[in-house]
Amino acid sequence: MPSRDDDAFRLAMLLGEALIRGGASSAATTTCLQRMFTALGMHDVTVAVTLGQIILSRPGRGQAGAITCLAEAPAGSLDLELRQRAAGMLEDLAQGRRSAHECLAELEQRSAHSDDHPSHLATTAGFSLLGVGFSMVMGGTLATTIAAAVLAVAAYAAFAAMQRLRAPGIFSLAAAGLTAVIGSTFAAFVSPETQTALCIVAALAAWLAGLTAYGAAQDIITGWYLSATGRLLDVASRTAGLVAGVALGIHMMAPFVGESVQYIDALDPDGTSWAAAVTGAVLVAGGFAVASRGRGMPLLALAGLGGLTEVLVLATLGVGLSSYLAILSAAVAVGMLCVRLAPALGLPSNASMMIALLPLFPGAAIYQGMLGTLFGVDGSGDELVAGAITAFCLSMGGLLGQFLASRSPATLQARGLEDSSADSQPYAAAPPADTLQHVRL
After folding, report:
1. Nearest to 90 by CA among 30, 36, 20, 46
2. By Cβ atoms counted within 10 A, which residue in 127, 171, 172, 437 is the most buried?
3. For residue 180, what pLDDT is reported?
4. Backbone angles phi and psi of 431, in degrees to 5
């Protein structure tokens, strides 16, 4: 019969794999596993999570030998259902409502009989809503918004087809980019009011490296340099895949349309119509939440938080603050709010915050800068810098808001396991800069 220690190590491995597969960072995963072992009274376990690899070790005690466990856990996209399940399990362990054996049995049963991936229908619907929302935030015309909704579906179909062929991810992204360009060109012929450049980016909004850029900046700020390096490379490769497909599509269409269609254009949020911008932000956050298996009240709350983020940015811009200060201020407020809402939503505040801040789109500037550099457009370097600064403002503001809220007297009194999953406090798990993310309990 497995011992209690065997159950704890097996549970930690499965829980860590679920967190990473659900989009959790190395910092958040390490902190969660640390607190799981602490809740089980195992204070001498060492946890190391680096670049999709989980290592657990415990020194020998008495006649018992040392224990070391290692598992590969490839990073996945954000999965709210998985994160919600993990958060609830960690809280139950900390409060003593369930044992490690009971949690392990549930995880093993779910992994054997359930599908831990969003359905294609939900993903398609979410990506379409995201494309519509992006077009509205950027002030797109009605023709552009309708085309973006349709082309987001077509781009996802091309991406999914390449995935079924087991093509490398960069080729799948290139297929999506190529589809977006061809479809946008056709839409421009059908309706001259279609803004082709905006239509392309809106159709590809789901693949822009906004969340990854945000996560990379957060890892740099909190000292997780190896994870940050991996995320930065992911930003570069994802954006390069999209740009390659878009560039190929532009060259393919050039003999037919010449210079009559504008494929590359500066895109900036539309601050003139608050109603359209806020509605678009609600659709962006809600669409991504749908694609990430968000359901029920958490889905509505995340969509509302996305709209609130846009309201805060527009309001601070209206009183004369610069765009970066407006983004920083909004991120602080959203970070604080996500910590306070985390227990009610059953979601880690860091996951909620990333979706709420998504309408600010740092990935769009990175895409524009890389594509513009490829075609020799003036000011492309400024776009890349703007994307990097935006990502750092979001990360710094979000972390500051989480820190302030988690240290407030009301939160300290109400919190059982420090915001359900420790995901709200990545700074608490940050190692010294000269370590390899190796945390000793």
Report:
1. 36
2. 127
3. 95
4. -85, 165
